[in-house]
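Supplementary notes (optional reading)

For those who missed the lab, this is the record we used. Protein: Periplasmic chaperone for outer membrane proteins Skp. Length: 166 residues.
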Amino acid sequence: MKKLSVLFAAVMMVVSVGMAKAQKIATLDVMGVLEAMPEKKKADADLKTFLDAKQAEIKKKADAGQAKLKQYTEEAPKKSADENKAREAELSKMNDEINQMQDKAQKDFVAKRDAAYEPVEKKLNDVVTKVAKANGYDYVMDANSSAFVYKAGTDATPAVKKELGL
């Protein structure tokens, strides 16, 4: 019985080593490929334009608020307490509007970014799958990952770039 368990353990070790060696693993410079894709560059440019427009809109509103604050501060001693209180309420309302504009711009930017990058990521994932299947890779891992302690396997980056026409 003891011989059988030792034999079984030895067989399991040989099988597990054989299975580990049979797996084909490649790395991929995901960021390098993404940065080389024209679709990503266009999405980045569109997002920058969108963000610049939103920031300009918010800055215009903030500058108007600053001008009113300065005007109201200078005129405050000459105005009645009721007028100053109304002006404070108006400034507070403007400040709330600016905060709402910033929140909305942030949400709009995130939605636009997600929509812009989704087709780029899908295209990359489809090509990685195609290259992995064509080359028999069991796993393709991001070469930029800090999880790697040592890597000397196949680099799939050139094959993916070639498939993308980059």
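If you only remember one thing from this example: The chain has a mean pLDDT of 84.
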